[in-house]
Amino acid sequence: TSYATTNLKNLQLLILQLYLLLNLLTLKFEAASNQNYL
C-alpha cells in the first residue's frame, strides 16, 4: 500500500506542476495579447 500511496503523491505533484505551468503560459499569453491591443 505504501508503494501505491507514493505513486499517488507523485501523480498529484505532477498534476500540480502541469496545472501551474499551464496557468503560467496562459498568463503570458494573455499579457502578450493585451500588449497587442495597446
Give a structural overview.
With about 40 residues, the chain is mainly α. The chain contains 1 helix and no strands. The longest helix has about 35 residues, at about 1-35. The chain is rod-shaped and about 55 Å long. The chain starts with a helix and ends with a helix.
Largest sheet: none
Total of DSSP H or I helical runs spanning 4+ residues: 1
Total beta-strand segments = 0
Taking all residues together, what is the mean pLDDT? 89
Keywords:
38 residues; mainly alpha; 1 helix; 95% helix
Short description:
This protein is mainly alpha-helical and 38 residues long. It is 95% helix and 0% strand. It has one helix at 2-37.
Helices, strands, pairings?
Layout: H1 2-37
